[in-house]
Fold this sequence. Notes:
Layout: H1 2-66, H2 74-107, H3 142-160, E1 164-178, E2 185-198, E3 203-212, E4 220-227, H4 229-300, H5 306-338, H6 344-351
Antiparallel strand pairs: 1-2, 2-3, 3-4
Helix pairs in contact: 1-2, 1-3, 1-5, 3-4, 4-5
Amino acid sequence: MEKRKIALLESERELLEAQRSLQDGFLSAETEFYKSLKTLYEIAASIVQEEKNLYEDKLLFEETKAKGYSPTSTKYRLAQSEVLNDEHKVEIYKRKLERETRIFASKCGIEFYQDKAENFLPSEIPEVTAIDVHEFKKENYKEIQNAEWEKYINTLKRKADKSVSLSANAGFVLDKRSGNSSNYSYADSLTVGIDYTWNSTGLVFSADAFFPIENFSNPSCELGISFAPNQFLIERNSTLQEKQDEVQEDIAIKEAEQNYLTNVISQKSELTDLLWEKSENLESFDMYTQLEKDMATYFAKGLISESEYKSAQVNRENYRIQLLINNLDLIIYNNETKMLFTRDEELQHEKK
Length: 352
């Protein structure tokens, strides 16, 4: 009965693990999608950064020319080479973004037809509320739950392997001798018996009954005791192994609990950094948005050069992209935090 119960529990656990795996599979696929999208935005941010360098170097080159340096002078050629180098880097990143965007679109089953890869990227990423790792119970941490399950089911299995064993036998004996020393008789007999083995000591207690074929109503019985050294040694080694297994299971639980504490600290620290970075980027974005508006006015009045105006534009664009990356980071963080824990309540909700 105990072994049937264990088999049922293992079967139920296997089904639950399959459901959890499917549940995490969806979340993992979503996470990979957002990570791939984040990579595209990071390439776009690199383009903007190189464009920023380009406009800054163009300003220096214009200053060099305004100071009257000859096109053959070292100062002039160095300033010019910086501009050419920046233009080359911008082109490299644009080609990279186009290549990676085509790959991304293909994986998503979307046709990429825009003339610029930058136009393919969403202009907005929905904001999500950050998940606090303490919203999840410690006992639902995957490593802890798996370690405790292993100890629980293995303890049941060890209890099911009883310290005693009982076996039965039946057979036919030819010319079975019975009676006392002065009056022996021989007869063919049917025999049935049981053996009771006390595994931890190796002692075997046996009881056999013999039923003569010619006189079936007059059976005889024999009792015996013997020692099975091999069984004793097997049981002793098995007991030692079980104790070692119990120690390892306890160690696994403690390690899981330590990993839980480590991950809690790590997730909280990561969330703090993400929220701080988002706040800083938002502040910079607002500042450069206003600066870009002011520079547009100055440029329209001829007070500044186009390169100066473009430099303000790319600064604003850089922080716009960084804010989108922040939103993606929070989505990824939430998903990865969820996948540290079992979420069986979601499975129950889906069934309803």
